[in-house]
Amino acid sequence: MSAKLSNAQIAWRAAQDIEDGAYVNLGIGFPEMVAKFQPPGKQAIFHTENGVLNFGEAPAEGEEDWDLINAGKKAITLRPGAAFFHHADSFGMVRGGHLDVAILGTYEVAENGDLANWSTGPKGVPAVGGAMDLVHGAKRVAVITDHVTKDGKPKLVKKCTLPLTGVGCVTRVYTSLAVLDIEGGRFVLREKLPTMSVADLQAVTGAEMVLPDQIGDLVAPEL
Amino acid sequence: MDKTVPDLAAAVSGIEDGMVLMVGGFGGSGAPIELIHALIDCFKATGSPKNLTVVNNNAGNGRIGIAAMIDAGMVAKMICSFPRSADPRAFTEKYLAGDIGLELVPQGTLAERIRAGGAGIPAFYTPASYGTDVAKGKPVAEFDGKHYVQERWLKADAALIKAELADTLGNLTYRKAARNFSPLMAAAAKLTIVQATRIVTPGDIDPEQVVTPGIFVNRIVEVAEPRQEEALMREGVAYV
After folding, report:
1. From what superkingdom does this record's organism come (chain B) (predicted)?
2. Could A51 and B180 be called an inter-chain contact, meaning their C-beta atoms sit closer than 8 Å?
């Protein structure tokens, strides 16, 4: 096993925790990958903000119907039992607590569950999309991310420095090195790469982790 | 009663300078391209309408639709959640030059503000954006131990909507995910203008299937073969 999980492996690990029949929203970009790794026998129902429940894989090239897209504006297909609805109903599903899981990407996540994933600062054109709604309402709000930034700085921090998407909203973090729950305003380490020591993991984590007696091995198949 | 109008030019007549204009669609899905282009034609011929405030989830893509309106200089301000796209040049250039305004609204809040506008609800509370820069200056209240941000309704002078079927009374159906914001906008605008792929006789749409009841619709024009923004983008079309 390499020194860290690939994005596909992080997505695979997050997918293992999605229950059969769960209603799930996947953020645009990297989180969309989670859909590919549903375990056999567990069929999630995917929600997209623009008004579709129970969509399936992308169509073959040339088969796209551009009235049938996901929130990332990518062409999708429907599974049997799909439904269309307007945007207010769609976000009613979100804020109303009807989704079981939302899985999002992030720039930073703080130990109190604060999430910063929409803006890297005042430069350029700001765009928020549905992120600020999605972090409220889903029973579990999980984040999938590399453990550190491209320059090696911690993405799991004591306090976010970038503009917030939501306050105290994240419940679980899947990273390239570990799985952590956010409980009582702290990162609780649940799994880590078996090849990595707790001390080395702590060194690249920007807040002190809580270490329970049982810490599992984070192991994903080659993908 | 028959709400059909003879052509696109008649459909978009009466949209004036400075109006708030809602435009249905999410990206290219549900974008009423032909109505938007008819409005651009009107602007080119008469210099009006301009200084529009446009409400849409996005802020245009490429050189067609809302992006072409921005390029033409018709838009003073966008109210949207995500002013990015595959080719956001039209909005980005004007925004960075300070030539166009932006009110950035979280997507669910945008939808609910429009819904509230159509439903006569002046304000509501949402958890979205609490504690973020987007909530700055907005009233906050606590309900059952959780914090919420007050948001106000959003109404429009006119809305441009793309439907699949319309009967002459204005009852509408939509095609697949092209529905998105359109039923909300149809209700929130004083003048709701619809392009439908097919106009049928009252009774030809099963009442069980009606998504937007005709009470929300003022004008209907048939566009039998509507173009799709994504397809036009791939063909490299520019509406200039």
Report:
1. Bacteria
2. yes
